[in-house]
Amino acid sequence: EREICRSAAYGVVSFDPVRPPRKHALGPAQAAAKFGRPRTIPETIVQPTTKEASFFERAKEHLMRKELASDKSPGTRRHTPQSEFLKCLHLYGGGILSKDELILLLRSLFMQGHAPKSGANASGGTNNPQIAAAANKLMKEFEKLLVGRGPYARQQSSLKDKSKYGSITCKQWDSSLCEDVTPSYKTYPSDYPYEDFFIHSGQTAADASVLNTSVVCVRNEKKTSSSKMRILDSLEEYDGVRTRRNIYEEALSKAGEERFEVDFALETNASAMRQVQPLSEEVSMLKDNEEKEGQPIGRLHYELRPRSLLSTHIGAIARLYGERGDEVIHHLMKNPISVLPIVFKRLKEKDIEWRRARVELTKHWRSISESNYEASLNVTSYFNRREIEKSIGHDLLTEECKRAFHFVKKPKE
Question: pLDDT tens, 322-355?
Fold first, then answer.
């Protein structure tokens, strides 16, 4: 068993007995419907923000003060103020403590810590104004951090996104509330909520002094009713994504988008295949070694190392299975030793299939490019054709005939 465990390079192998599933544990299909697609396999823990990391560093320094330590040095470090602080957070994260109970415990811990029962520091830091001020400051900051995560934080973020300026672009702002500084820049609206959109974690006063929070760059919109002038005025004003100059350019753009989609799918599939191949080979080798060593089949437990599969690889694998892609990803997270060889085989088959399809599509794209490229350069072709169609229209020809007939009868008029 030790030799098999040491032979794994991309994962962690163990022969520990598998724990039975919990009573209300979600299956792969239910987990996919509830949590969606993970970003990495295995999932990485949530990283602290700059403000949170700074708070925990200062809290650690505060709890290591001599005034908050006990007279009796413990034999182990289990009961230091820092360890008690982490225990309180763990109980709160497990749902045992409520928010109010956590704040009450931490306030007492920051004020007194493990204060001795006798001596000069019998009351901990309650009689020390410096410790009391530092504890009150830490508690105020901690209360703000508590509402920065969880349902309340998601609710506040959703409200900000649905607010007046959170759901529109700067082009849709009311120009009457902005001042034109230059033809290309204007100020933010007078009712713009700076405190909601310009407060960032870890931003210092020096950062705020050099960052632009007063003006925004906008396009120089020229008000003209002529669509021809809007398209032909300047290349800077031309937006090739929203407006096509003629049908030939539209055909070229469509072919380019199709080519991009096919190339993107092929490259991401190839990247996922290169990433999964060593994992699949290692899993197959471990299975063979387990059978050769005479071990009971099914005892080997395999877990991937952190960041073994990233979001691009996960997206490529999920694309292969369509609507059931997220469910397959959760199967892969739960039982990689069985799912990895199947996924690798599927990736390999799709790579061969899509490369053959790209060869056939390339011929079609080449014919579209050759037949539309020169015509797409003629920007005025669409407008010239409309003018020609108007000049030979039925109503215009009828009017010209009436004028000619009237001129023949009364040439002087």
Answer: 999 999 999 999 889 989 999 999 999 999 999 9
Gap between the Cα atoms of 221 and 235, Å rounded? 13
Among the listed residues 113, 114, 192, 125, the one whose alpha carbon sits nearest the alpha carbon of residue 160: 192
Distance CA 88, CA 216 (A): 46
Place of tokens 């073994």: 308
Above 50 in pLDDT, residue 135? yes
List of residues 6+ apart from 151 with CB closer than 8 A: none
How far is residue 219 from each of residues 3, 191, 392, measured CA to CA in Å? 66, 22, 39
- H or E element, residue 301: strand 301-304
- Contact of 247 with 382, CB cutoff 8 Å: yes
pLDDT band with cut points at 50, 70 and 90 for residue 119: very low
Element (H, E) at 50: helix 50-63
- Under 8 Å between Cβ of 56 and 48: yes
Closest CA relative to residue 129, chosen from 111, 156, 105, 155? 111
Amino acid identity of residue 327, one-letter, is E
Please, which residues bridge with residue 14 across strands? 301
**Alpha-carbon span 255 to 365, nearest angstrom:** 6
Contact in structure between 351 and 74 (CB atoms under 8 Å): no
Token reading at 103: 């704040």
CB 354 within 8 A of CB 269: yes
Give the ranges where 244-335 is alpha helix by DSSP (H): 247-292, 311-320, 325-334
What is the DSSP secondary-structure string of 153-168? Answer: HHHHHHHHHTSTTTSS
Mean pLDDT score, 41-57: 85
Q: What are phi and psi of 303, to 5 degrees?
A: -125, 135
Amino acid 347: pLDDT: 95
State the SS3 of 339-353.
HHHHHHHHHHHHHHH
Comparing C-alpha atoms, which of 96, 67, 69 is closest to residue 80? 69
Given this model, what pLDDT does residue 345 score? Answer: 95
When mean pLDDT is compared over 53-67, 113-127, 291-305, 388-402, the highest value belongs to 53-67
